[in-house]
Structures are given as C-alpha cells and as structure tokens.
Automatic annotation (TrEMBL):
This is DUF4442 domain-containing protein. Pfam families: DUF4442. InterPro entries: DUF4442, HotDog_dom_sf. It comes from the Bacteria.
Length: 152
C-alpha cells in the first residue's frame, strides 16, 4: 500500500478526515489548491474529487473553466495512480486527451478510473477520466496517459 493511500485511510477515519486530507493533498501540488478541490474517494483503480463552482474557477460566461476541470481530472488521476501503482514502480503523466462536451454549470465531480488490464500494459497506462455536473451531465471526458516504469 502506498504511503499516500495509507495516509488517506488513516486520516479519513477521523472526524472531518476527508476535509483534512483534501487540504494536505492540495498542498502537495499547489496548483491543486487553486481549484479548492475536495477529495471524495481514493482506492486502487479509482480517484474522485469535487471541484466546486466558485468565482476563482469560472470563465467569462460564468461556467467552470475547462482547464479547472482538467486540473480536477489530473488530481483524481493522481489519487488513483498513488493507490494503484506497484510499490517498485513510479508513474508520471505523459499526456492528456480530453473533449469538452458541455458547459460546466455546477460544481464538478471529477473521476479517474482504470482496470488491472490497463496497468498490465505498462509502461503505457491509460486512465479514463470524466467531469460530471450535479445533474449527471458529462462535461469533460478523455484519457490521461501515464508512463509507469521501475524505480531506480
């Protein structure tokens, strides 16, 4: 089990644990803090965060900016990768292919998912990602490509 996943399990067992873990996670990569995300789920093959609709992430038409959505997707992928990557391997994102499918008119739930078969294809590991509004509309969907190699 990765140290990040162990920390997630330990902290989220406490009162206000998800909020505390979300703050700590956002400090690890400061650009995650810019979207004020909250971590909803972290386990092997699944990462999920919520990006709230706030003025700081809105574009000129008052919807959540596409790049803020991508930031949430990358955060969800990072949780998944930390929970899934074998301990003798390391992961690095090497690309993101996304489509903007609809306006992001509410807070977004950003989800990253993979399968064991995806990881069996290392070093190239595709992670499926999507951002969904409160009413279930998928606004951004795509794949984040990871490079998974042995630690040196």
């Amino acid at each position: 089990m990765s140290s990040t996943l162990a920390l997630y399990k330990k902290i989220t067992a406490l009162p206000q644990g998800k909020r505390i873990f979300s703050v700590l996670f956002s400090q690890k990569a400061p650009y995650f803090a810019s979207v004020h995300l909250s971590v909803e789920e972290m386990k092997p093959h699944l990462g999920q965060v919520v990006v709230p609709k706030r003025r700081s992430v809105q574009n000129h038409i008052g919807t959540v900016h596409a790049i803020a959505a991508c930031n949430g997707l990358e955060a969800a992928m990072g949780l998944l990768a930390e929970a899934t990557c074998p301990p003798d391997m390391r992961w690095l994102p090497k690309g993101m292919d996304v489509q903007y499918l609809a306006k992001s008119t509410t807070s977004l739930t950003c989800t990253a998912e993979s399968t064991e078969a995806d990881w069996a294809g290392a070093p190239d590991v595709p992670i499926t990602v999507k951002a969904v509004t409160k009413d279930g509309t998928v606004t951004v969907a795509g794949t984040i490509h990871l490079w998974v190699v042995p630690k040196k």
